[in-house]
Amino acid sequence: MENKKTKSKVLVNHPDYKEHQEPWIRMVKIDSVPRGIPLLVRVSALLGAMLTGAIIILAMGSNPILVYISMITESLGSASVLRETIRIAIPLLITGLGIALAFKMRFWNIGAEGQIIAGGVAASYFALFWNGYLPYPMLLIVMFIAAVVAGGLWGMIPAIFKAKWNTNETLFTLMLNYIALEGLRYLQYGPWRDPRAFGFPIISPFPAEARLPTLFGVHIGWIIALLLVVLVHIYMKKSKQGYEISVVGESVQTARYAGINVNLVYLRTMFISGAIAGITGYVTVAGANGTISEEFTGGVGFTAITVAWLAKLNPVAMIIISCFLAILDKGSGPLVNSFGIPSSVAGIITGLFLFFMLGSEFFLNYRLVFRKKEGNRE
Amino acid sequence: MKKVLAIAMIALLMLALIAACDNDSNGGGGSSAGVTKDNIKIGVVHIGPLADQGYTFNHDLGARTMISNLGLNMDQYIPKFDVGVDPANVTAAINELVQEGCHIIFATSFSHGFQMIEVAKEQPDIVFAHATGALAHTPDAPPNFHNYFAKIHQARYLAGIAAGLRTETNVLGYVAAHPFAEVISGYTAFYLGALSVNPDVTMEVIYINSWGDPPLEQQVATRLIELGADVIAQHSDSATPAIAAQELGAWHVGYNNDMREAAPDASMLSPRIDWSIYMTFAVKSVIDGTPIPADWGEGLSSGAAFITGLNDAIVAPGTDAAIDAARNNIINNNMMIFRGHLKDNDGNNAQITDYDGNVIFEFTDDNSFFAESTTTSAPSFNAIIAGINIIS
What CA dihedral angle connects A279, A280, A284 and A287, to 10 degrees? Predict the structure, then answer.
């Protein structure tokens, strides 16, 4: 302490001090943004991404305008591709909702991937081994409950350790992903391997009784997703428990002072967060895929973090963001067939959009202040 | 309240959107009636990207050759690249080809089978052909679903001759994909080819549990060379094992592609499949309205399996002649690859089993032979024979 003081005194007395007192550039938090500005910033971010992407597309020898038009028509242009786009958006939306609950209380749940796997494996167990013992809709309901409980419990493990020993939940949830994945791999390469595959490590397709019905050509996971949007919105905004999550997120000390049982909130919220991710596992295995494999999550548990973050944890905004990401994903896939643009480059273009959109959020929250020139100083 | 209303409206909007578009869902789908050379459309679901220079490259080449063989236009071939093995993506890709009016749809990976059968049941007028699969002869499969493969074990046997003549350490190394019949049958044929010209040879096998993983393939190849192997062969999708062999001064036998360019001092030759033979046959059958067998598998005799890129500069003297003699025996004398009193590593009779462990064939004496890939196009030989050591 003493040392620091003398040091700063020396600095102040130094002839160059004024030069260095202000950094060349610094970030200042913006308190309020005028109306209309956010829209302007976001639209420019989108244009910026499209322009940068256009340079890459030109470098690949294609016409950027045709490529962008193709991305729209290949994701929204016909009923069949639109259904695929919605199918891709469903797991992103559901998982984003689950992650948002944890993030709201500043509990960094990077473990949605593992929670999806836990839910998917639990649902698959009943799909593979209980068909015939349960009447038709019962099997799907039991699978749903199993996925919710398994995902919830898997999500609760890091919360227990956080509550008891104050462990770092970011690392803990991340590590649990790998444990869940290895467990699934064990099942796929071992006891759940399909006998009809002649030794190839693949798990059998589910019987028809364990498949989610479709409505308008998409499995009813989309209805579950929209219902969850409403439920999570009400839970976060209208319920006492949702309020407690916000308080814990703002300040653990304040929450304790207000008599909130912080540990209970951790446990309860992480159960719900994991359970919602478990539902993603359920709709993916029973709806989209009709089976389970080590790749079945498709990295949704990580992409959904972007969904939650871009939507500022707002459930309604998550519908839009997840659909937008699904459009990018579905739209960029066929570029390799129609333009010869490799899927790796298509991935770069998708990444550019995310980069610009996440970057624009920075400029809505902060402004950059440059050091004024010597002569301009008052 | 406003927000709830907004959600409800968005939900309603999405519903309306899907419902409005739903009308065309029953359209599409080709009918076998009225298919001609000029209007036939051919869809192919490729597992990987065209740039892999291996499996997908080779299968795409087969499709393009088929188009030119039959005098069709390139735009009648609708490929879907890089579809992968995710079931929902596979189903979506097949359905898109159905929507685009394809009359015959090929799928290139073993893992595409279950999804293809599901769509085949919904689209009885479209012909479906699934490479390397083993479901067409099961009761699950509808009549419009077919399997095809090549007797690649014959070509691997020929490649084994080059390896057996070349090795100095008498240890071969094999980078193997998955531990099941297709792969086991391949490396056993390769080993038997080597054994036919070199009775002292043994082989080390390491599985990568994937069809292709370039860094892992290279690591495994390096490990095999450290274990004493001086010829590396592979059943995996990329050319990295060839590069490892080149760097460490070993020899190499490729797969699916001439790998001399990647490893000019290591790559001796590659067993390869010419998919155009079947694709030409199947597409022509659809145009002519003639039936296609549930299982199709041809080998050296029709050129469906062959060896490519024989590197005269580095193969042992006499390799060419030895390969020619064996090829002649296989084609003209119907020589079986899996023949004789094959034993396992414990000295017992080698046995071919089904998944549940039931023995479906046993090599009991010198006259035993197993006619691989005759009842089903997918291989079934899965015995681990003496001389082959699996490293885990």
Answer: 50
Q: Which of A83, A88, A198 to mutate to test the interface with B (most CBs of B within 10 A)?
A: A198
Token output for A363: 């400029």
φ, ψ for residue B315, nearest 5 deg: -75, 155
Distance (Å, rounded) from C-alpha B211 to C-alpha B319? Answer: 29
Q: What is the rounded average pLDDT of the residues B218-241?
A: 93
DSSP string of B21-37, one letter each residue:
HGGGGG-----STT--T
Q: Which two tokens stand for residue B62?
A: 């087969």
A217 and chain B: CB distance < 8 Å anywhere?
yes
A46 token code pair: 């989108």
Across the A:B interface, residue pairs with CB atoms under 8 Å apart total 125
The pLDDT-based confidence of B12 (bands split at 50, 70, 90) is: low
Chain region(s) in chain B for CATH 3.40.50.2300: 36-151+275-298, 152-271+306-391
* ∠ CA B331-B336-B338, rounded to 5°: 145
Please check the confidence at residue B18 and state whether its pLDDT lies above 60: no
- With beta carbons under 8 A apart, name residues in chain A contacting B149: none
Task: Give the pLDDT confidence of B358-387 residue by residue, as tens digits.
Answer: 888 999 988 889 988 777 888 889 999 999
The matching CATH number, chosen from 2.170.8.10, 3.40.1280.10, 3.30.70.1350, 3.40.50.2300, for B152-271+306-391 is 3.40.50.2300
Q: What is the mean pLDDT of residues B316-335?
A: 93
Residue B275 tokens read as 């998919």
Q: What is the distance of C-alpha B372 from the center of its chain?
A: 15
Model pLDDT for residues B91-126, shown as the tens digit of each residue: 999 998 998 899 999 999 988 999 999 999 999 999
What CATH class has B36-151+275-298? alpha beta
**Chain B interface includes A298 (CB < 8 A):** yes
pLDDT(B24) > 50? no
CA B41 – CA B104 distance, rounded (Å) = 7
Contact A201 B79 (CB under 8 A): no
In angstroms, the CA A219 to CA A19 distance is 64
Determine whether the interchain pair B51/A342 forms a contact, defined as Cβ–Cβ distance below 8 Å.
yes
Token digits of residue B19: 């419902």
Q: Do the chains contact at A230 and B50, CB–CB below 8 Å?
A: no
Contact (CB<8Å) B181/A337: no
Cβ of B53: how many Cβ atoms within 10 Å?
18
Domains in chain A: boundaries: 91-329
Facing A290 at nearest CB: one of B17, B21, B87: B87
What is the residue-wise DSSP string for B57-123? HHHHHHHHHHHHHTT--GGGEEEE----S-HHHHHHHHHHHHHTT-SEEEE-SGGGHHHHHHHHHH-
Q: Give SS3 for B212.
A: coil
d(CA B100, CA B102): 6
The answer to whether the CB atoms of B22 and A79 lie below 8 A apart is yes
Whole-model pTM above 0.80? no
Cβ neighbourhood burial of A213 (10 Å; 0-12, 13-18, 19+): exposed
Our CA-based measurement puts residue B328 at a distance from the nearest CA of chain A, in whole angstroms, of 32
Residue of B278, B261, B252 whose CA lies nearest to B53: B261
Structural tokens at position B294: 């549930």
| Rounded CA separation B253/A338 (Å) | 35
C-alpha B130, offset from chain centre: 11
Task: Count CB-CB contacts under 10 A for residue A43.
Answer: 11
Tokens 């209208």 — which residue?
A238
